[in-house]
Write a structure and sequence with these properties.
The complex is a heterodimer of chains A (about 300) and B (about 280).
Chain A lengths: L1 H27 L4 H6 L5 H10 L6 H13 L5 E2 L4 E2 H36 L4 H15 L2 H15 L11 H32 L1 H8 L4 H39 L4 H10 L3 H29 L7
Antiparallel strand pairs in A: 1-2
Chain B lengths: L4 H23 L38 H37 L1 H16 L2 H12 L3 H10 L2 H16 L2 H8 L4 H9 L4 H24 L11 H8 L8 H28 L6
Helix pairs in contact in B: 1-2, 1-11, 2-3, 2-5, 2-6, 2-9, 2-11, 4-5, 7-8, 9-10, 9-11, 10-11
The chains are: A mainly alpha (about 300), B mainly alpha (about 280).
Chain lengths: ~300, ~280
């Protein structure tokens, strides 16, 4: 319990570090948000007016502390571009991104667990070969290309699925397939090799020797051991998916956080970008934390480190 | 290493690819950047129409030959990936060696910083940095290196932590070897195997991230070709002219496949405990 608390404390330090990094990065390069808001034709005085209004004339440390104080009160800042509090804008977008991510994780893990188990049990057969092929090709493919191939096949040629935007379940299928593909292929490989390893263990031979049927051996005894890494992987895969989201949301015009980030950064909408990065980092950190906790719960032999 | 079939397949794929891309300037007649609106979106003629003086893979929306841009773009992407991997892994190795060996407060600070960098997905961080610095080749290489050195640092650090307490290290210290010698001559060579395996993964990952960045317009600056740029070029016309998008994707997949085979081959040879 104490080590969990310590981990949480470290996570908070990490997140504070993330805000510093995000804050600092935005203020390095060129691009003046005050000028962007004022417009190209504005005079120096008008730009200065905007600058004061946006709080950009304050010393950097003050700006950072103001932002952080807001966070403590649950206020993620104000978006100059959208002219609304960041929290409102983010709220809707996070939901959409998480919907897609959730769907992706769901199908990816279901598929890879089943395929991995079947492949592990039936090593050397056609199914095994197909699983390995799927794993290798999935890891080598670009999400961008996969997205467009899906659009080409299911949207353009077959006309089965809508290719853009949000709507019913049908709109979620292709982007969901796309975002989950990488996870599915990686987890298939892991599940399969996990199953293969477990099946090689002595206790499996012993169980069979005692007369327990093949099915019961595999599904009751071997499976539990092979499933251990899966629960923990779910947490860490979320992070990888969040990166892919940016691209997938662009391809399928899905109104999520990835799309928001790209729009915000081009407009130098500082507080929006900072908060998007912070929220993403929070999700990632929480995912990893959950994975670690799940690990200790499932296998009490493992000391929490 | 030569005995591993995987390694040989991967290595030959990559060598072939690099050779074709690197020498493409010599035997391709079309320019990768000059547009010609008269030849927009011509379908591939598969070496039919006078071989290379035709358009084997067709043309893109601005009339540029796809095969030319594919090969030139490949060369650009490969060069970037290569540079990034060398820089990031060197930096990561140095940090990992120092942090792992000296431990203490240095290690703690390094680990916290790396945790912070890892808390933001690489692509997102790269997008922000490139947007802030501006689109250029140098910024791209810088950004990709700066966002990927952490994994190597952690890997090297964990190897060093395992070796630190072994007898051959204490023996060297007792014999009076200076710290730099211990790090360079004793610790570092033992990390090379792991680093080689990690390098192949790093190559594959970097080229995929670079493609994503270029697709979003934040990677290789247009009109320079890059596989990601090609895909975004062909995006609008995917229904009418799918070849513009299909070609770079397949090239990319073969490249990453080659790197993965390479890495698996190396792992088979040096890490026989890990059987897949």
């Amino acid at each position: 319990m104490r080590s969990i608390l310590r981990r949480m404390l470290f996570s908070i330090i990490v997140l504070i570090g993330v805000t510093i990094i995000a804050f600092g990065l935005l203020r390095i390069g060129h691009g003046d948000p005050a000028r962007m808001m004022a417009g190209g034709m504005a005079s120096a005085d008008e730009v200065e007016e905007y600058r004061v209004r946006m709080g950009l004339n304050q010393p950097l440390v003050m700006q950072y502390l103001t932002y952080m104080k807001g966070i403590l009160h649950g206020d993620l800042g104000f978006s100059w571009n959208y002219n609304a509090p960041v929290g409102d804008i983010l709220g809707v977008r996070i939901l959409q991104t998480l919907r897609l991510a959730g769907f992706g994780l769901l199908w990816a893990f279901s598929f890879s667990i089943i395929l991995g188990i079947v492949a592990g049990i039936n090593q050397g057969t056609g199914i095994d070969f197909a699983a390995i092929l799927f794993a290798i090709i999935g890891q080598s493919m670009s999400i961008v290309w996969l997205g467009f191939m899906l659009i080409l096949i299911f949207g353009v040629t077959l006309g089965w699925l809508p290719t853009q935007g949000m709507g019913g379940f049908k709109h979620m299928i292709m982007p969901g397939l796309c975002i989950g593909f990488g996870v599915a292929s990686k987890q298939t490989r892991l599940m399969r090799s996990g199953m293969v390893d477990v099946l090689r263990e002595d206790f499996v031979v012993a169980t069979r020797a005692r007369g327990i049927s093949k099915n019961k051996t595999y599904f009751k005894y071997a499976l539990k051991n092979a499933l251990l890494p899966i629960a923990t992987n779910m947490g860490s895969e979320l992070g990888h998916m969040l990166a892919g989201m940016v691209v997938v949301e662009n391809i399928f015009n899905w109104p999520g956080m990835g799309q928001l980030l790209i729009q915000a950064i081009s407009m130098r909408d500082y507080q929006l970008v900072q908060s998007v990065l912070l929220v993403t980092a929070i999700m990632l950190v929480l995912g990893n934390l959950a994975a670690d906790i799940a690990y200790t719960i499932i296998d009490p032999r493992i000391k929490f480190n | 290493m030569w005995k591993s079939k995987l390694f040989m397949i991967g290595a030959s794929m990559l060598v072939l690819l690099v050779l074709i891309c690197a020498t493409s300037g010599l035997w391709i007649k079309w320019s990768p950047t000059t547009s010609s609106l008269r030849s927009r979106l011509i379908a591939p003629d598969w070496f039919g129409n006078g071989g290379l003086s035709g358009h084997p893979f067709g043309t893109d929306p601005l009339g540029r030959d796809v095969l030319t841009r594919l090969l030139q773009g490949g060369w650009v992407s490969l060069k970037i990936t290569f540079m990034v991997t060398i820089i990031a892994m060197t930096l990561g190795a140095i940090v990992g060696l120092v942090s792992g060996y000296f431990g203490g407060i240095i290690d703690m600070i390094v680990m916290r910083i790396s945790d912070m960098l890892l808390a933001i997905p690489q692509l997102l961080l790269a997008i922000v940095v490139v947007s802030v610095l501006g689109p250029s080749m140098f910024n791209l290489v810088f950004t990709l290196s700066a966002t990927s050195w952490v994994a190597t640092a952690r890997l090297v650090r964990s190897v060093v932590l395992n070796m630190k307490h072994q007898e051959f290290i204490s023996a060297s210290r007792v014999l009076g070897a200076p710290t730099s010698r211990i790090i360079l001559k004793e610790l570092f060579p033992n990390t090379i195997t792991q680093m080689m395996i990690a390098a192949s993964g790093h190559f594959g990952g970097t080229i995929l991230v670079e493609t994503n960045l270029s697709y979003l317009g934040m990677g290789v600056p247009i009109p320079n070709p890059s596989w990601g740029n090609l895909i975004s070029d062909g995006r609008q016309y995917i229904a009418a002219a799918p070849w513009v998008v299909i070609a770079p994707g397949i090239a990319l997949m073969l490249t990453v496949l080659g790197f993965n085979f390479l890495g698996d081959g190396i792992r088979d040879v040096f890490d026989p405990k890990n059987q897949d």
